[in-house]
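Page 42, continued from yesterday. The earlier attempt failed because a stray header line got pasted into the input along with the sequence. Redoing it now with the clean sequence only.
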Amino acid sequence: MKIIFFGSNDISAAQIEWLINNNYNVSAVVTVPDKPAGRGLKLKSSEVKTLAIKYNLKLFQPEDLQNQEFIAELKKINADIFIVTAFRKLPEVIWKMPPLGTINVHFSLLPQYRGAAPINWAIINCEKKTGITIFFINDKIDEGEIIDFKEITIPERITFGKLKELMKNESLMFLTNTLKKIEKNTFVLSKQEELILPNTTLKKAPKIKPEDCKIDWNKSAKEIDCLIRGLSPEPCAFTSILYKPKNKKLIFKIYECECIEGEHNSDIAKIISDNKTFLYITAKKGLIQVKECQLENKKRLNIKDFLNGVRNTENYEIIL
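This time it went through. Structure tokens are written below.
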């Protein structure tokens, strides 16, 4: 089975390496162009490019997926199947090219959470389960016929970073098992529309935007807790905070917290701290206990080290 793999992130790279180590013929990889990153704006390569160089794989980094030279080069390879994980939408001329089709490895139980950030949104929405779906790509995003799926229970209090790692590892054997089914033609396809139960609301998983990361303290403590965990360690949930002595607005990021549910009589978004060991922020129906945080232009710190530097939290006020 000759494979061309389309991907951009560490999950894609892990899957490519797994395929190579399990004697699959990865004939080429397609990834994103190098992009400027960091303060120095130096060009940064994707994890997939780094892996391709390590294994001396044929590498494509097209700016334009409709480029005729790029398409001609893909055709020359004469691959049996294309695999896509964490990549942009492919034009029809590409996904229709291989005889065994083009499959996508998606990190949700489709048709729920179609989109670019399904792992984040599953935690943000306080879900109890998620999964991995492998489907044949068609002309719509994440709506192709399903080949197979794997259900995964979301561990309590897990963060996006840890769930992503767990799901990455779960995807490896699942991918090769699915490829065996495709090779032997032993799979049964399911249409996504047939899996939608009556009165079911389909939840989406769009790319995370900066405004999605801002904490709304009018929400319940549980909802805020899910948001913080769903965005940790990146892109990270934040709130605006005022440093009153200088009337200066700052960004306050929260990486780790605990949720204490229960009714209280305090105003929301009130900071409660002993200035030594703990810091709580009030929300509806509970408190958020901040465990790890970062004040704008400062280092990421555990709460004791943070309070040791701040000293007097009465100088700070959450901006709603």
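Notes: The first helix runs from residue 10 to 21.
Reminder to self: strip header lines before submitting.
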